[in-house]
Design a protein that fits this description.
By secondary structure, the protein is of the alpha/beta class. The chain has 17 helices and 10 strands. The strands form 2 sheets. It has a 6-stranded mixed β-sheet with strand order 2-3-4-7-8-9. The longest helix has 21 residues, at 175-195. The radius of gyration is 23 Å and the shape is globular.
Length: 399
Amino acid sequence: MEKTKGEIIDWFNRYQGELRSIESLNTQLEKILQDQSLNPKELSLILYHSARAINDGVYGEDKQKARLTVGTHIQKLTNKMIKAINGKVPPDIKIDFTIAHTLDAFKLLEIQPPERLTECLQKKATKFMDIFSARNIVSMLSSTARLALPIDEKFMRAAIKKIDKFNANSYSSPTQPLELLHALAVIDAAEEARKGDKRVNLKKTYNKIFGNNTIKQAIIEACADSISNHRRLIDSLYWFKRKDEYSYPKQGDKPSMFEQDVQKTLEHYGAKPLETKPHPITGDRIDLRAKFREKTFYAECDGPTHFLKAADDHNVVLNGHTIFQTKLSILRNPDEPIVRIPIDVYYPNEGNNDLWETFLLEIGKKDNGGYVLSANGSLVPLEGGYNPDITTEDTHEPD
């Protein structure tokens, strides 16, 4: 017996911890694509609960495989969402809820949405910004920041206008204004990487949020028992004030196995390791520092949590938080380039002579700024992407 639309939606929303196969997820998504009656809110909830269930382990331990399964349907789901959201939307759809949950779904899936969907959602949000709740604006901008999405100027100005009307009573929890402050800092950093001084200025909005003593007190209280919140606040303050005033909470600082392996590889190809000292005020430390010939540079060794898959070209891109952290490091270390070394580039190419020689020659030409090591040894800008499957020919001879 064929399931009704309600039963199919409930299948995604009410899994209650039961284990399911990735094949069943694929089958249900195909059924969704065939249903012509789904409205934007229903589509956003299906996508959102698919992502939540994957993160909860409903489709097994291989969460990345489950995300990729959803990813194979993203282009068609995007077409369906755009058609639905640009059609006649009933008043009860709650467009702010729909947009916030759609972007949150992509954040959970670790997939950067297709550009046409980003443009559609920002355009629709701009039109209906007046009805957005503080909760949904914070959620929307937090996901926008994490996904490192390009920002439409009209969208950002509409969001700023709405945020400027908020007061302490607008927020339902003390973490919301902190999350908003951090999202604005991340968005500003990513936009600076793309547009430089031509981006929309967000410092005035920061001043209004943190300049409200009641909101400021709530933000500081939200950091009291949370190391991650404490760091997010310090980073946000430094980004907008460009002045280090506070130290990070103390944490262990033992080099990872990945860092040790990268250092050995750099040494093998002629780069001399140098000591990396903690920042005198924050106590933060970049993973590695090295010198090749007359050129010194920093390196950050990045696991998979620093990256997203881009839906349009399937390239790997830095998430917004990693772009932000790199921009902070550049501000504190302006005279030497910083290279982020992805784990999925490093280990398949650990002994690839061409890659490391290309990398060291390229780094010698860079004066400052941040880059990502691509899979052929070239350096791509922070806001760019790389294909981890493209490598140079390995000419390494066994020892």
